[in-house]
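Exercise 7.
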Amino acid sequence: MIAWLIIDGYNLIHRAGDHRRGAPTLGEVGVPRNLDSQRRHLIQLLEKTVGILAERITVVFDGRSGGNGHSGGDGHSSGDGHSSGDGHSGGDGHSSDMPDEHASTVVEVLFSPRNKTADTVIEQLAFQAGPKSKVVVVTSDRLERETTEASGAETMACSVFLDQLNETLVRIERELRSRNAAQHPAIPIGNPFSNLDINKPGGSLEV
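Solution. The predicted structure, written as tokens, is:
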């Protein structure tokens, strides 16, 4: 199992919908068209795979439109990349604060501050983790892959990860159905005519 999976969120979402390049999609579970819904949908799918695909999963998105890389408290951020109100920001300038609809108790969701891209945040995370942390970065951005690999992380193309994600989700669903069937076995109806005493041809029928 991967120790820490860091995902370039928008890169993965765009690749999932890129039919022209033959990339696998999340068709088995449906992908909404609205970008905000796509983010939420991706987070929900990743939540199901924590502890299966990876011990820790972090997904990084570019800051939300309007320039705020993160929100907290009143939803505003200052120009130095630190959030105001009660929001918190890490030392590398990114924040795990996010709109309530993206909150997750098992998947770490980061929005880059307005002075950094998601690529920069991911590269910083990989560099800080070091080669012994067994980090795998999911992105199809060639330059980002080269940079994170230079810091000691492994990389995985979005198409490969989408295959793994879909296969894992199908397996989870299959196991849940099997478990439910074992816990609630079907009760045999039996033969409704088992109490009838049917004699040989020409005889009488007794109930």
